[in-house]
Amino acid sequence: MKNIIVGIAFIFLTGMISGCSSAGIAGFVKKGAVEWVVTGEMVKTDLENAALKIGNSVIDMKWLKIGIFERYILPELAYLEMMDAGITNQPDFPPYYEREMKKLYWSLLYEAGMKLETAELQQSKFPVVRVSHILIDVPAILKKKGITSTNTALTEEYWSQAYILSTNMIGRLQSSVTQKQLFENYAKQYSQDSLTAKGGGDVGYIIEGMTVPEFEAPLFDAKTTGLLAQPVKTQYGYHIVFIAETPKQKSLEEIKTLTGGNFQQQYKNLQNIMKIKQVKELYSIYMENKGIVINSIPYTLELIPEKSPVINIWGRDYNWRECKDLIEIFTPGFAKNLNFDTFLKEMKSLRNFLYFAGLSYTKGEQNKQEFINELAKRKDEWIKTYCTDNLKAQLYSAAYSAVKPKEVLSYYEKSKSLYVSTNGAVSFESVSNMIYKNLAQEKYDTLYTKWQTNSIEKYGLVWNEDALKELRNQLESAVKKQGN
Length: 484
Known about the structure:
The chain is of the alpha+beta class. The chain has a domain at 126-275: Roll (Chitinase A, domain 3). Helix content is 61%, strand content 17%. The chain has 17 helices and 15 strands. The protein has helices at 2-7, 40-54, 61-84, 93-123, 138-144, 152-174, 179-190, 194-197, 213-221, 252-259, 263-278, 320-330, 340-363, 369-402, 405-423, 428-459, 465-483; strands spanning 12-13, 24-30, 33-39, 125-136, 202-207, 226-227, 232-234, 237-251, 279-281, 284-286, 291-294, 297-300, 309-313, 316-319, 461-464. The strands form 4 sheets. Strands 4, 5, 6, 7 and 8 form a 5-stranded antiparallel sheet that branches. The chain has a 4-stranded mixed sheet with strand order 1-15-2-3. The longest helix is centred in the last third of the chain and has 34 residues, at 369-402. Residues 1-22 have low confidence and may be disordered.
């Protein structure tokens, strides 16, 4: 197709156009003046990246025009053509367009929210405590002995023995004058947490929200350093805990300093903690009837009140109607085909999505001029892409319809000797579909060329040859510089 573009008789205007900007590369003549739709600033980065890949050998005016036409001018011509043809007057266009514009709007809020989240993390402070622990891993002991949860008596006995062992160890530690040193020795000898035992049980800094609540509760309640008087029971067993540093509020930068090489993992932890803090479900799952419970009232999915808040994100409630509408934007048919499994899946996705998009929304990003301008730009790009896709689809449809069975058979008969020489004897049935596609592509190229020629003449495409030469010089310099 690119070779076809080169052969088209473009209308070239250079310095003859009065008042043309040096930045204008291609545009359309309207009422005797040129409206530039392509500038050097728009295309330079794309073309420079392409030029750096291929080298100077093919950077000529034809190469430039092909690249610029396909990427920047074709959408403009397709837009003009399809709008003149009344594409937006089709009955199914308004609802489709409305949904796509909502999708652009919320997607842009999501992108902005990802940037805002970083700022939120940088401005926030998080409770941090440093601890060491000795773990009596009861689940591991039970597994090793082959004791399952169905054996209640034995399970409870081993948990009781672990508690006694933990309290006895705490007693010995409490009476020691070298408590910290003895704790480290015990951790190395007895702790069943292989990751921390070698370091004397040192867990390092824990940010509130990083671990299970039952482990964190006594840690973040601690007022002084030293040994906790009681073992801490969690799903992992019993923990004997030594508070190395009492809880303090720390900024992101302070945590970065404290954690050093582990900061990347800590940063992910902080993101998760922030999400847990800012995303709240206002309902619980009602498994018996596959529904939900709101304010202690059970509902089947079909009877959830539209105005009932179901999630709270960044301090803002979203009711069921709002949630359904947002999901419907990205998953058309959600409400119509609602069931328990899709509800769980889509609500999870919505919570993750609104963590970012909802942050932007509550911060009022949608009212800022930068957001408004970017949204307008994306809407413009969307409609032009939509028109381009539809134009090509129409041309392809016409091309495929124009291929007749006789043409396919005739092509096969003429090329039979070629098939035999390359692949051996080949039946018509085995290659007819491929021939059909090849012939359709040829007809498409012909139709595309005809449309292109007519639309260029109809809308008055012009090129600024001086600006093109300057752009080519810049690209050649970039390639030369890379070679050095």
